[in-house]
Amino acid sequence: MEGYDEELEEIKRRKLLEYQRRLAEAARAEEERRLEEARRQEVLRRILTPKARERLANLKMVRPRLVEALEAQLIQLAYSGRIATPITDEELKSILRRLMSTQKEIRLRFMRSSLG
């Protein structure tokens, strides 16, 4: 019976260690995500006017995936020098209009092809 108890304790100990390892890994990943988001926000502060940043923040509440993709593109364009900075609210609205019209066209084409 004593060998069984020792074996059970060893299994419990291993499971606890595994759980602690996973917890630490999740905490590390969360910290990396938090730092990456802080870096993104710092870059966006440099390349967007305050009004443009406000517009993106408002839109992010409704369309988070769209805004994340747009932010990544804006950062990439700014770093490559292919877009003038700082980006004003008017310029951002123009970019958003073009982006939204492209998405609507894609959605309409998809809907038509699925009905016919």
Describe the fold and architecture.
By secondary structure, this protein is mainly alpha-helical. The protein has 4 helices and no strands. It folds into 2 domains: 1-47; 48-116, Orthogonal Bundle (Helicase, Ruva Protein, domain 3), CATH 1.10.8. Helix content is 89%, strand content 0%. It starts with a helix and ends with a helix. The mean pLDDT is 89.
- Helical proportion, percent range: over 70%
**What is the CATH topology descriptor of the largest domain?**
Helicase, Ruva Protein, domain 3
Shape: elongated
Average pLDDT rating: 89
Q: What is the CA-based Rg, rounded?
A: 24 Å
Number of strands: 0
Any low-confidence stretches, pLDDT <50, length ≥5?
Answer: none
Main sheet characteristics: none
Helix and strand succession? HHHH
Beta-strand percent range: under 5%
End-to-end CA span: 72 Å
Reading off the top of the CATH hierarchy, the class of the largest domain is best stated as Mainly Alpha
Instruction: Tally the helices.
Output: 4
Compact summary:
This protein has 116 residues and is mostly helical.
List key phrases describing it.
single chain; 116 residues; mainly alpha; Helicase, Ruva Protein, domain 3
List the helices and strands and how they pair.
Elements: H1 2-47, H2 50-62, H3 64-80, H4 89-115
Helix pairs in contact: 1-3, 2-3, 2-4
